[in-house]
Amino acid sequence: MTITVPSSILQSAERAFPFGPPVLELESISLRFGGVQALTNISFNVLEHEVRAIIGPNGAGKSSMLNVINGIYVPQEGSITVAGERLSEMTPTHAAHLGIARTFQNIALFRGMSVLDNIMAGRILRTHATFLEVALQLPRARREETENRAVVEEIIEFLEIEHIRKTPVSRLPYGLQKRVELGRALAAEPKILLLDEPMAGMNIEEKQDMCRFILDVNDHYGTTVVLIEHDMGVVMDISDRVVVLDYGKKIGDGTPDEVRSNQDVIDAYLGVAH
Amino acid sequence: MTTGTSGLDTFPKLLLHHSRERGERPAIREKNRGIWRTITWRELGEEAAALAVAASERGLQRGAHVALLGDNRPRLYVAMCAAQWLGAIVVPLYQDATADEIATSIQRAQVTHVFAENQEQVDKLLEILPRCPTVRCIVYDKDRGMRHYKQPQLVSYDALLQEGRELAAQKPDFLQGEVASGKGEDSAFLFFTSGTTGPAKGVVLAYAALIDRARLAAAIGELKDTDVAMAYLPPGWIGQILFGYVQPMVVGYCICCPESPDTMLSDMREMGPTYLLVTPRVLEALLKQVSLRIEETGGFKQWLYRSCMAVGARMSEQRLAGKAVSVGDRVLSLASDLLIRGPLRDMLGMSKVRVAYSASDAIDPDLLMFFRTLGINLKQLYGSTETGFFVAMQRDGVIKPDTVGAPLEGVELKLTPQREILVRSPGLFREYHADSEMTARAKNAEGWFHTGDAGDLDQDGQLRIIDRMAYVGALKDGSPYAPRVIENKLKFLPYIREAVVFGDGRDMVCALIDIEMAAAGRWADRQGVSYIGHADLAAHDEVYALIADCIAKVNAQLASEPLLAQSQIHRFTILGRELSADDGALTRTGKLRRHVIAEQYRALVDAMYSGHAGVRFGAEPDEVKIRDAKVTAPAQTRKVA
Amino acid sequence: MPDIWFFIEVLVGGLLSGIMYSLVALGFVLIYKASSVFNFAQGAMVFFAVLTFVGVMELGLPFWAALPVAIGVMVLVGMATERFVLRPLVSQSEDTLLMATIGLSFVIEGVAQLAWGVDVRNLDLGIRDEPINWVMDKTGMLISQLDITAGIVASVMVASLALLFSRTKVGRGLRAVADDHTAALSIGIPLKHIWMLVWATAGVVALVAGMLWGARSGVQFALVWVALKALPVLIIGGFTSVPGVIVAGLLVGASEKVVEVYIGPKFGGGVEVWFPYVLAVLFLLVRPEGLFGEKIIRRV
């Protein structure tokens, strides 16, 4: 199924945050699981403030790519450079410290907590008060708590989820859970936001909402977005540049128009009926 | 109270009065980002002054029209104050109006300045801007997503306020002068009424008319500046403006803006309003929520609920009938209040409500009594935009559920031989905007206004509304027919959201039913009926059986009333999708637009009259069924004592 | 002595031992929240901890020097457990983890006896197990100094742990880890640090519990079974709830003593041994998620 994004959601050509230097560079990444070659010699970069999509048919290695970027998988070969810092091995914790936040294809929320607590949890790296400061309610602990709450409330307003603030996330419908997960990622005030199929399983209206949120985040906070999506229509509408993977190999890279006219991509992806 | 307020004949004057008299008391509270924030009367006055002076720099002039497009937020009300400060006439529009509807209003009122809440509203305005050359300036409140908009007409509220704050300090005399040159007979508002027939009419109301009616209603309700009201109904409707702007201006009480429409109930619980305006639609929705919750609880709780409500109902009836209540009943009533009615009032956020009025449309007596039984002092209020809203209201101690109460002071009522209600009152509108012909047709030379409502006065002088004149008619056999009474009875049932009945000039009454998805959906879940979406559920035989039961109950009620016995519903069909304002079937306040519906569903209605039960109908996307309903023999011999 | 004073005496005694149950149960809850495993080795840790403490004192160190040493050893044990038992078993099933803790308990018991021998020792904390005089004079109640001290120490410990794991960064991290490992990692929670911290804390809790119990009944192998006392507390309070086990500990302590004194004689005594389990079974029937346990709502 393909949907198109109404033109009113799309940004005009003028950008609030012009593209900067590459904030994320992947060089010759190869990843194997046992004998299975998941990714082969993949290189691409992501510019500051851009919306970069990774697309490809099922099993093309899109999720593996995202998991490499935030350190869940460690590639056998290749290197990752984040904001000029070249890393031989990335861990999820390190990625979070570098300002990389993410969402998951199969929603990974803290199911026992409310929406508010889930998004508050996203602030954990922005919290520094020690046990004693909290116990004695010293100024720093109180100030941090207030600041964190203010940031979280801004996100709640941004995502229009005021009405479910106190609701346990396990009671929410799927589309709203996805939104809360985005909220938790935003709470860390990330430089780079990784979105793993943010629109999977949504109806058209929810997809349009999600598109609007993604573009607004990019536009309002200047956050760099890397997203995986299955739905070609959406990707072409909201991304600045697109990487196309097929069987773990990169077969295309460029603006949506370039990718659309790339014969390899047409054969591998568009030729496949979905 | 009235001493010293006699010269205060416009809202800007009243605003300055309050910022002097009760400057540090709250004027508007708003829940924003999870916290209630307060704007005092002094702050409201200062912000309005700043905005006024900045708007004047941008060419806003006395007598010009300013449109407001947004939900109930403090800044909408500040903009209202600022526009009137300069003697401009405020045109509040419905925030969910389509671009075309907005264009029509703006063109007709020749609006020069617009206040828009957010990007969504600005987008609609920009779309119609080429058609609306009079618009010089669009002020937007929330800047989210507005970064790329470069149209010269656009200015952010924050920027305008900033300009104004600097200018206001330099030009205090200008601001004082502008307030002083306003007079009571000036036009204050131009409302576009949600006409159930024909296009919207532009109703112009003067300060004097609004302030006169508001003062009177405030005196009857014994309102004080410590009262609290919720601002949650559409600002395009006169009712919201009266309860959220005019009466606060007269009395000095505080309004609370909920965070979003979805958080309304919990926000209301937090603020505990004491003065409340509701519409039958809101009450129906609340009642359906309550019924749903009760149905989902266990047997004991359901029994408890029914017993407590029965005790409450008996008490209310005895009280209304002026009978003494026995000691035993009083004890039972107290207990039921502690166990069920009190907690329910809390749940609805109405535990502190002293007075609540239901307006905008006729309310089903059972619905009214339900809330009165809960212990909420809910009363009917009759009036329209043209009549300054306050024409008649039920008074404490003399409430008859099927009337709207006695006319208020200053109101003269007259009935035509066709039973149309004519009103003469200080609250009457000045004119229909730029349409002297229509004004003359509606308001005659002696100042009598034709309301278009049919009604009668009972022996106690209480007014009973039958229906819109246009809809009152007769069945083929000559028995009287008024659709709204029947529809309200249907809508009182939890599974029916909206009903449209037909019968004028016909040999029997038929109905289109719009099911309440939430309730019917949960019913279907419990019954194990699987469905995909509204249309599918609406077409299920089980749902038809459920609705047939509901209609049979209503028919039994109708049969017991001699005047209505012939109006029993003989045949019905369930609509595959909701009736909505967006396709014109309802007005923005949720009233039926019968001619539109009759047109949209003409083939279906014809099929109901000509065809027979179970017929298939091709024009609708899905299969539509038509069913016969069970009709009860009219109870001529037996009458309920 | 009036009956009411006697009742209060029984109740206070019960509450004081109850808070110690809470303390032991808290060790279980922390580990359960962090690693989703019922730590079978908790009893062994209690035994090992207090044995280490006594052993160090026997080497000639004074109380205030022996305490940090014992704490240090327990922190090391906790960290070693994380490094050598849990980390290799990441993403294994809960059954595997349970088996691992059973194995761990044998290792710890073995090491303890190997290092410090098998004799029963006395632990003298300098507080005598005698009634407080002025309370006895005033009211006739017999309330032991040791019990009061133990109660106070346990309360402070429980309160600070509750605070640590509810309001602070570590606490939020722990709750997040308990709900979803992957998500917790993605927001920057260092899973390994949290595990280490939790196991180290569990070790310190074991030490305190062991000392308080050991001072009463001697330091002996039977301390391993203290853990069994925590089981009904866990069931009643809920495996994941800190406030739950605090309340449940007090409830179990107070009720078992009251039942023993007032109803016990009818059964020929010894009721307090089995009463908590009966209570726990009742809870399993009525409220399987425990007093404050999280009721997991599953969407259909």
Automatic annotation (TrEMBL), chain A:
InterPro entries per the UniProt record, alphabetical: AAA+_ATPase, ABC_AA/LPS_Transport, ABC_transporter-like_ATP-bd, BCA_ABC_TP_C, P-loop_NTPase
SUPFAM superfamilies in UniProt: P-loop containing nucleoside triphosphate hydrolases
Record PROSITE patterns: ABC_TRANSPORTER_2
Domain ABC transporter: 24-272
Keyword ATP-binding: yes
The entry's keywords: ATP-binding, Nucleotide-binding, Transport
Highest taxon in the source lineage: Bacteria
Pfam families referenced in this protein's UniProt entry, alphabetically: ABC_tran (PF00005), BCA_ABC_TP_C (PF12399)
Record GO terms (molecular function): ATP binding; ATP hydrolysis activity
CDD domains: ABC_Mj1267_LivG_branched
GO cellular component: plasma membrane
Function: Involved in beta-(1-->2)glucan export. Transmembrane domains (TMD) form a pore in the inner membrane and the ATP-binding domain (NBD) is responsible for energy generation.
Name of the protein in its database record: ABC transporter ATP-binding protein
TrEMBL record, chain B:
Boundaries of every AMP-dependent synthetase/ligase domain copy: 18-433
Keywords, alphabetical: ATP-binding, Ligase, Nucleotide-binding
Gene Ontology MF term list: ATP binding; long-chain fatty acid-CoA ligase activity
Top-rank lineage group of the source organism: Bacteria
InterPro entries per record: AMP-binding_CS (IPR020845), AMP-dep_synth/lig_dom (IPR000873), ANL_N_sf (IPR042099)
Cellular component annotations (GO), alphabetically ordered: membrane
Protein name (database record): Long-chain fatty acid--CoA ligase
Organism for this UniProt entry: Bradyrhizobium jicamae
From TrEMBL, chain C:
Topology of the protein relative to the lipid bilayer: Multi-pass membrane protein
InterPro entries per the UniProt record, alphabetical: ABC_transp_permease, BCAA_transport_permease
GO MF annotation terms: transmembrane transporter activity
Subcellular location: Cell membrane
PANTHER family in the cross-refs: ABC TRANSPORTER PERMEASE PROTEIN (PTHR11795:SF451), BRANCHED-CHAIN AMINO ACID TRANSPORT SYSTEM PERMEASE PROTEIN LIVH (PTHR11795)
Stated family: Belongs to the binding-protein-dependent transport system permease family. LivHM subfamily.
UniProt protein name: ABC transporter permease
Organism lineage: Bacteria, Pseudomonadati, Pseudomonadota, Alphaproteobacteria, Hyphomicrobiales
